[in-house]
Amino acid sequence: MKYDVICIGMAILDSMIRGFDPEPVSSGYRAISGTLNVGGDAVNESIAASKLGLRTAILCSLGCDPAGDMIAEELKRRNVDTGLIVRSAEHPTPVTTIFVMDDGNRRSITNEAHRYNFHPEQYRNVLTETRAVILGSLFRAPFNDPDVIHSVLTAASESGATVIADTKLPNFRRLTLEDIADSLPLIDYLTPNEDEAKFYTGKEDPQEMAEVFLSSGVRNVIIKLGARGCYYAGTEGNIYVPAFNVDTVDATGAGDNFIAGFASEILRGSTVKQALEFASACGAICSTAVGSGTALDSREQITAFLAEFDLSDTADYDKTEDRVNQSIIQTARRQRRRIINNHR
Questions:
Q1: Residues 268, 131: contact at Cβ < 8 Å?
Q2: pLDDT tens-digit map of 160-216
Q3: For the domain with range 3-12+41-85+115-343, which CATH number is right: 3.40.50.970, 3.30.43.20, 1.20.1250.20, 3.40.1190.20?
Q4: Per-domain residue ranges of the chain
């Protein structure tokens, strides 16, 4: 195979505003800092995957503009194969303004450029050259068209590639699980965050959310629970992995780094439990600096971070015991807190 993973989705230039003060001054508004960072799900995932040692390519669209040039150069610098990028003089590179809150959460402003669907199904032949495919933004462009989704997933599945699909809340076009019912059985791992899982399933409990996805045909589901960790349900049972307790600066891209970490370890033959631990560490480290590609450095960095942790700290999620065994979770978190403080 030419690639370990091809990441398909959005490429965006992020204008990151940290510490925004809504009180106007004579010249406008003030903030603590403003930075430009490459972003978008496919960009974040491909850079993280490459840093973790995977042979990585990206299939996305960029405008023939300075924003597109900046993203392409950063991808090349990070050893991501950019040969599949579609450049367009008619469609500008999306630029997103992101307000980073004090707790690391963020709010973003999108625009018409985010609507563009570059039709990745036209390039389905390249999916025969990879061990895994990551769809960065199921339910958003370019994956907000049922026919596009089905075509790409069918090609990936027929080639034998592992399919990992992240989800997003809709912004311009709304789809339901029923709208893509024929595509869901083609997904090996679906990775919504908690808000997205609530939106698409109508459930509040992670186990019930997972049951909806699994009953729709998805083979495995990972629900990212933010500071509470993640919950997995699928072929290897039910697993809960607590989050690492770190000082969060900016959560932008943490989920994308999580997915890249999970793909890295699954492709190396790890169990789901081991891959979830590794992925959780990737997401945690990402959140300790501004920008999705700033803090994560290498696979060696993650393995060193995890070296002092016992994988048995993870817990089975059993609803008959009224959710996760809280004593196990608290013990794991206390251990993580001690180790992280020692690394500072």
A1: no
A2: 999 999 999 998 889 999 999 999 999 999 999 999 999 999 999 999 999 999 999
A3: 3.40.1190.20
A4: 3-12+41-85+115-343
